[in-house]
Description:
By secondary structure, the chain is of the alpha/beta class.
Amino acid sequence: MEQLVIKGNVRLQGEVTISGAKNAALAVLAAAILADDVCVIENLPCVNDIKVLLQSMEQLGVNVDYLDQNKIKMDSRHIHNRRIDYDYIKKIRASYYLLGALLGKYKKAEVALPGGCNIGSRPIDQHIKGFEALGAHVEVKHGMIVATADDLTGANIFLDMASVGATINIMLAAVKAKGTTVIENAAKEPHVVEVANFLSSMGADVKGAGTDVIKINGVKELHGTEYMIIPDQIEAGTYMIAGAITGGDVTVNNIIPKHMEAVSAKLAEMGVTIEEYDEAIRVIANGPLKNIQVKTSPYPGFPTDMQPQMTALLSVTGGTSIMTESIFESRFSYTDELNRMGANIKVESNTAIVKGVEELTGAEVTAPDLRAGAGIIIAALAAKGETAVSGVEYVDRGYEHIEDKLKRLGADIFRVKDKSDKSMFKVV
Ligand SMILES: CC(=O)N[C@H]1[C@@H](OP(=O)(O)OP(=O)(O)OC[C@H]2O[C@@H](n3ccc(=O)[nH]c3=O)[C@H](O)[C@@H]2O)O[C@H](CO)[C@@H](O)[C@@H]1O
Ligand SMILES: C=C(OP(=O)(O)O)C(=O)O
């Protein structure tokens, strides 16, 4: 078991380059199955979710050739298998995109029910509703989702909620269906737009992505393409908050500032200086910050995937702040860990009441999921003394070389390879 050991209370300063967006890349990789030729995909983040998805795609018969650690060539012309077992995908959520892609291309898919972060019940009824509307027969048996169709035909689908996963999955299943599909109450997240752009670059006819109505005219064939993944707005937001909590001066490079608006606006409201450039944001924090209220909501609202990181910052901000989670029902389990570090956070239903404390202190803590892990690391960067963070495997799902990037900003952080290395570590 690995741990990240962080000696906090160090001001972060400098520049950090943001990697490709994990959640966009996962969907794009699955979408590439639909091509009848080779696809080259660049700016893939070097994170475990991507490795796991690619390994499971190799089981299908996809040929994956790494051109470098962030660039692959994918050949999906010789897929011989339509089934993905649980062992391959129990750690990731995005495996559900293989359902839409295989169904869209072969009219048959068998994929184990997805894993992913344990942040509440995560049904996929809207995905299934969409596949059925297109004419598929879907059954869940022995932990597998089995979807089959004689033919897929375009349909009008109104989503009960603006689900990112369902919107993308229905796009994947519909892109080669006969006729026109209209998805209403579609999710508007940047990775939905990204998948639409990627599909269009393969010859698909998708309009309206980024609005709440997406229209897809089915096409017969999709060709290969070369594509560059957009930057990860959640990774960017994580480093922006790491800068803010340490009273630092951090420039986050290789980003799309528009995607950061909800995070930038909240930081500015707290009194952090935000300088926006074409492809970068500089975050400067000096002096005390103001307490605020935050509510997570679908894009362009404040992202649920930034909720733990922001709560960590609020935990050392004067006054009482309120964080309301409106997407997932149990995304506050990490607050117990922050409280072990001296925070004063009380959770009532979907709201965290965060009374800012003077300082946090290092402790042994465990990340219960990916973004919670990021929130705990942010708290540790500000805490006095050393914090040892377990559950690093969650963090590695979604952050490329996190300790190297933080080290370059001046953080005192290192990875302990196994328990015996703990002799190096002493809580002070
Ligand atoms: C791999 C990936 O991209 N994961 C992201 C994706 O997850 P994911 O695709 O799972 O999230 P959704 O947008 O689908 O979920 C939003 C809400 O809708 C509910 N729901 C969703 C589908 C469904 O069929 N039925 C249903 O009830 C969910 O339980 C949740 O309450 O979007 C979330 C919301 O931005 C992010 O936190 C995740 O990081
Ligand atoms: C919750 C996340 O991932 P997943 O949906 O794959 O669990 C995330 O990326 O923050």
